[in-house]
Design a protein that fits this description.
Keywords: Signal
Signal peptide: 1-18
Distance between the termini: 122 Å
Pfam family, one: TPR_6
Number of helices: 14
Shape: elongated
Organism: Cognatishimia coralii
Largest sheet: none
Oligomer: single chain
InterPro entries: TPR-like_helical_dom_sf, TPR_rpt
Strand content: under 5%
Order of helices and strands: HHHHHHHHHHHHHH
Length: 282
Amino acid sequence: MRQLTLIGLGLSATLALAGCQKATEAEVERAVEAINAVDEANMNDIMLTMADPAESVAYFSKKAAEDPKRIDFQRGWAISLVRAKRSEEAVAAWKRVVKLPEATLDDQVDLADALIRAGRWDEADKVLDSVPPTHESFKRYRLEAIVADSNQEWDKADSFYEIAVGLTTRPAGVLNNWGYSKLSRGDFTAAERLFMDSLRNDDSLFTAKNNLVLARGAQRNYTLPVIPLEQTEKAQLLHTLALSAIKQGDVQTGKALLREAIDTHPQHFEAAVRSLRALEST
């Protein structure tokens, strides 16, 4: 009897141990799955931010083929194609994304962005019109402004640019775009003001510096603005001013600015030298 009792206790202990072992194995599996999910998310982020665009496209296209219903893979593929400047393929990829059940309004905005990059302005306009006005995002209004610009709907463009500026903590880029819009309309004073606003937010933005010089040159103001400039940048902006002066018939001023640009550049400034020689030969 005592032996049977001992055997029974032994079996109970064995079953209990087996139960604990199974529970432990399940927990381990769950932990491994969690780690894999984190690793996969990290890899996705790396591919979208740090990897070469072509490598990123290859990675996400493979992942999307393995699991077509995973929206993160489809999004990653679409974003990678945009980064790789494969615009038409990016449009097709974003169209696949917006058809998935988990797609968001931001995905529609990204589709509009891809359409603009592909030069399909009318389609982009329709996609943006389909986004409810309650969806207020910086990217949405920046794209609305760009589309309005392309349609020469200046009041709408100004309104959208103003909203976009208020929706970001880093407005330098959109202020530069807004300034270029004003420059293209011939409103040089407003353009100059917007380029200065852009540089106050990011004084490293060379495009805004160059556009600012174009706006000043269009007003026959051939002096460089008081902004932070490296020596090479200063030479390049003097070259821009020179070309602006020449275009407006102020040839002698243009020649003087070209000589100053050549003297300022820390290396041989071939473009300025070539422009000056062409002027002097005529």
